[in-house]
Design a protein that fits this description.
With about 220 residues, the protein is of the alpha/beta class. Helices cover about 45% and strands about 10% of the residues. It has 11 helices and 6 strands. A 6-stranded parallel β-sheet has the order 3-2-1-4-5-6, sandwiched between helices. The N and C termini lie close together (about 10 Å). Its cofactor is Mg(2+).
Length: about 220
Amino acid sequence: MSAFDLLISDCDGVIVDSEILSKRVLFEALCTYVPAAKLGPLLEDTFGLTVPAIVRLVEQTFDLSIPETFDEDVRRESEAYVAEAVEPVPGAREALLGIDMRLAVASNSRRHNVESSLARAGLTERVAGNIFSADMVVSPKPAPDVYLLAAERMGVAAARCLVIEDSPTGVRAALGAGMQVIGFTGASHIPPGHAKTLLDLGVVAVIEHMDKLQETVARLRG
């Protein structure tokens, strides 16, 4: 009997290489309030966090107040930029098409953005509407809510879900939901030494290239 019944993938940084684009938009917008030289080091470990969480961090760190409209303004600009410029992670489509498991996507993005990214990656039919996004839960990642929702709606026990994640935020969310996680370090925003970071958090395996995903899933399924 296989150890897992459901594969759940993050979207940004796993299926599409979008994190680097979103980070660029956010960085440029925040530079209006904080010098780039001070802002850069603070943002190094924030990928996977929502914009409101990053804004709160910046406000607390630099003792300033950013307008309430900032989140929506950055989100609108980022969504437009990502929709126009994002590219699929190399090999992601082939890997996910080649794995004989039910597939869902759990993301800290909003649903319409995930749908757009899946279309860009050629995975709309494969995912078949099994999308669970930040706007569907009260608390986004690193809370486990979006993963627990995916398991509940798909009718699969959390312990029988296998997750693919790239960020510490997402890994914490999936582990908090009681799921096992494969770490992915192949997107363009990933810093050096990130594999160790994910392993230290408790992922069961790390892959750098999507051409290793199928064999890794097969090995973990038993």
